[in-house]
Amino acid sequence: MxxxxxxxxxxxxxxxxxxxxxxxxxxxxxxxxxxxxxxQDKAKEMVEKTGQMGVPVIIVDNDGKEEVIVGFDxxxxxEIIAK
Amino acid sequence: xxxxxxxxxxxxxxxxxxxxxxxxxxxxxxIADQIGGQSVVxxxxxxxxxxxxxxxxxxxxxxxxxxxxxxxxxxxxxxxKVESIAKKDNDYHVITSNGEYSTKSIVLxxxxxxxxxxxxxxDQFEGKGVAFCATCDxxxxxxxxxxxxxxxxxxxxxxxxxLPYVNKVYLLVRDDAPHGDPVTMKEVExxxxxxIVRHAESQEVKGDVMVEGLVYEDNETxxxxxxxxxxxxxxxxxxxxxxxxxxxxxxxxxxxxxxDHRTNATSDAGVFAAGDVTDGPYKQNNIAVGDAIKALLSAxxxxxxx
Lengths: 83, 306
What we know:
heterodimer, A: alpha+beta, Glutaredoxin, four-stranded mixed sheet, 3 helices, B: alpha/beta, FAD/NAD(P)-binding domain, seven-stranded mixed sheet, 28% strand
């Protein structure tokens, strides 16, 4: 199991965010959730980081090396957690 | 090894076909990017029979659970992407991102995807103000002025999803008025934040880094106008995901797979189709499910004779 830190930027009404979170729970992957609908600073941070405003955004931090995944790319996430 | 049937897709139709294939003890595989279908993005589905109200993500979970209940009976190839299908000696070879599988028959439930405007700036500003999911992305447009393009039900629903956040919504429709469910219509009409822009043909998305405006032409006066908006939500219907069978089966001018509505057979004997990818008149989850079961049972009869 990967030791990477996973953060997901989401909104409460976003279906793919829920699928992504359920996927993490099902696969025993710990993650931090940021609700950008209430945290406007974090929303701004997300836009700056990704240059776009769509959720979910999933950030995988591997010892300071960040991979930014826009959208619930299940195949990519499966690869990462399989490492 | 050769499958009896390969089911392509991950929406309610594909799941229904998968469940029925398992119960018929067919050698079957379901190949999909993801389970859930287009309703995953819906905040609340109120017409899925048996549930008064269910979020799209919850429906996706239930569909996944139901399908995974048969994972020892049928093969679930998820996430996997179908790239092409070739026909050889009456068998089909389905080529995916991970491999190649041969099968006697195919049930195509590949659904549809968002139709795009196809105007200048749309691709460039996708995610930078141009959005295709109001339910998901509405909070980013707090106190902003936005446009919703599309006068159908999904356009009206996008307006309703945006109202709690935005300052103003322009709803651009091509004809005289929006057409949608009376309940949603009423909600839109009663809001003083909404301005309906009639006879509007969207022409160009303007901006620098982020969206700053939407240019449209009035199709009656032929005058061009620009709306100062920071968000543009495109809700102009869907396009069928029929590319993978375009050389195999008959497809109509709308890109839909033409099916016999009694059996869900296509013009190619071993290929059956159901749901939004077909020329069925109503694009509905419940209908897609019923049609997919017809398609699967037809495929069962077909494969048995081979």
